[in-house]
Each structure stands twice: as C-alpha cells, then as structure tokens.
Amino acid sequence: MKRLFTKPQQSVRQPHDKARRMTAALCLAAAVLVLLFFLPAARESLKCLLNRLFSASEAVNTYVYDRFSVAADASPTLALLLLGGLMAVLLLLSFLRRGRLIPFLFALLLAFAEIWLGLTPPPLLNALLFALLMLLALRVRDLRNAGAVLLASAVVFFFISAVFPGVSAAQEERSELARDQLDVLEQRITGTYAEENSTAQSAREENRLHEGADAGSEDDNRNDRGYQHLYEQEQQISRPQRVRYLKIILLALGILALLTLPFVPFLFFNAKRKQSLARRAAFASPDCAEAIRAMFLHLTAYLDACGMGAGNRSFSRWPERLSGHMPADYVQEYRYAASLFSEAAYSTHPMTEEQRTNMEKFLDETERILYDEAGWKQKLRLKYVECLHL
C-alpha cells in the first residue's frame, strides 16, 4: 500500500518542480536583459565591453568596427558580472535538472562569437571549456565517465594540434570570404549598402559632336573637320555584387554539423549505458521474477553482441545456434535459464530466491566466458560500445 501511495505523488510533483525551475530561469534571464538594455549604467558598461571586444578583434584581424559612444570613465565590469552571473546560473540550473538545451545553445553561441569576432581564448582553455559544456550536454555525472569524456577530448585536441598545427591559410581565406558576404547581407538588410557603396558622379557624359545642338549657328562648319561618330559597346567592368544565400546557408549548416557531430558518439554511448544501468538496477529488485527477467535479457544481450544470438527466434530455440560456439554444459545450462525466464515472464506464481541465485550464477558464467576470456578489442567493444560490462 505504501508503494502504491507514493508513486502518484512523485508523478504529480515532478512536472511542477520542473516548471518552477524553468520559470525561474526565464525570469532571471529576462531580468538581466532588462538591466543590460534599460539601466543606464549597465547599458553603458555593455557598450564599453563591446568596444573592448572590437578593439581586441581589430588588433589581430583586418576588421574595422563602428564604436559605441561611451563615457571616458566607462568600465565593462558591471556587464561582465551580469552576463557571467546569468551564464553561471543557467548552466547550474541545466546541471541540476539534467537539461541539454542550455549548454548546447551556449556552445553554439560561443562558437559563433569566436568565428564572427576572430577571437579565441588560449587553445587549451578553449578546448576545456567546450569539453565541460559537452559534459553538461551529455548529462554525465559519474566521475569515471566524466574522466573518459575529458580524456577523449584531450586525445582529439592533441591529435589535431600535432597533425594540423598553426593556422590554415585556406581555411582563413574561406572564413574571411564568408564573413565579407555576411557583412554585405547585413548592409543590404539594414539599407546602408547603397549609400556607402554608391559613387558620386564626378563628370557628366557628353557627346563630342552634339548632334542637333546649336544647329543653324554660325559655327556649324566646325563639325565638318574630319570628325566621325564612334560607337562603343557597353562593357561589363566587374560583376555585380550578389549575395550567395545558398553558400551562406550551407556554410552555416556545415558549422552546425561540425559542432554537433563530435557529440553523436557520446550520445549513443550515453543511451546504451542508461539502458544497461536500468537493466542492472533490476538485478536487485525485491521481485525475484523481475530480477530473473532482467538477468536473462542481459546475458542474451551478451550473446547477441558476440554474434551468438538467434535474432527474432524464441529464446528456447537459441541452443541450436549456441551449440556451434559454446560448450555442451553451457548449452544445457542455457536451456534451464530459458525455462526460468519463461516461467518468470508468463506464469503468475512468485519465483524463489534459489531460482534468482541460479540465474545470477549463469550470468556470471556468461560474463566470464565472453568478457574475461576475450581479447582486448572484444573487451573494449563490450564495455564502451555495447555498455554491457560496467
């Protein structure tokens, strides 16, 4: 009765807690934005911070920015405190509620700012920052798994540093071209492109012969001194400036893919690991039937991962395939384990602790044969790809 009473209470309370946290985060973000744009001191500090970023970008790039007019004693400290506090609270909230959207959007915004401004922190610090955001996005809380993710990130970082050191001139040229095109697009949207790029006419076009002009005057005979009409075809000196929207869209999609593809293997690993942990948690269930079902499904996952499974056929027919791979004693024990699973899955009477112990011993025997006696490649696959041995 106690279990039946507590389950509905949890299902009703959790959505309200989640809604309250999301409301608090949105209110906090709105409050910081209101302060930044409507509080005079905060707005002045934000303009000063942007001017500092523009100056730092111009120091290392051939960019020219329009500065904001700020007071001589303006300081970016207030804007840094507001923005840093907002990011810290949002990331902490994302960590507590295990949300993926906030760290992903923050990583995307950070990457776009680095690309647009041409500024990056020191390489090691930048790689560490994106690795921490990846931990939040993957919702990794176990220290071992966090260490594995950081180790993989370090291996990728040092590999790229060793194979592709320095700055790629071709990549920089493509980046500058994309930035110039985005700049032209921005000017066309804001309506400043025509005013800034139109050239004032410095001289008027004039026909030397002036046909019909001054007709009947005294000096008409001046036009008969060997002059003749010359016609020149109009020539295109340069191509008109066009915005290549398709190229911009493809470049944006490429950047998005470059940011998201490294996360895909970790997302796959995290999903497989959660499934395996949920199955292992049922091993200690007070219901012996549930524990027997979970252990049998886990050992069949072992067999299937090692190429010994029989696909969609019933578990009672798997011994036909196991006979060619496993010892006869193991096949006989499997028949008994399959009968225990059928009894736990389809019968209504309770299972005994002795039956649970027998299934657990058979699972240990399966792990010993398929994992402990396997090679290092098979162990890596079972541990980190299939997530069966944790």
Structure overview:
The protein is mainly alpha-helical and 390 residues long. The chain has 15 helices and no strands. 11% of the residues are buried. The N terminus is likely disordered.
Whole-number mean pLDDT:
76
State which percent range the strand residues make up: under 5%
Radius of gyration: 35 Å
Count of discrete alpha- or pi-helical segments spanning 4 or more residues: 15
Spans of at least 5 consecutive residues whose pLDDT stays below 50 are 1-15
Report how far the terminal alpha carbons are from each other. 34 Å
What is the global morphology? elongated
Order of helix and strand elements from N to C terminus: HHHHHHHHHHHHHHH
Biggest β-sheet strands, sense, barrel: none
Number of strands: 0
What fraction, in percent, of the residue positions are helical? Answer: 55-70%
Structure classification: mainly alpha
Key features?
disordered N terminus; about 400 residues; elongated; mainly alpha
Task: Record the SSE blueprint.
Elements lengths: L1 H37 L1 H21 L16 H20 L4 H17 L5 H16 L4 H21 L5 H22 L2 H5 L47 H16 L3 H18 L6 H18 L13 H4 L5 H19 L6 H20 L3 H10 L5
Helix pairs in contact: 1-2, 1-3, 2-3, 3-4, 4-5, 5-6, 11-13, 11-14, 13-14
Give a summary of the structure in a few sentences:
This protein is an all-alpha fold. It has helices at 2-38, 40-60, 77-96, 101-117, 123-138, 143-163, 169-190, 193-197, 245-260, 264-281, 288-305, 319-322, 328-346, 353-372, 376-385.
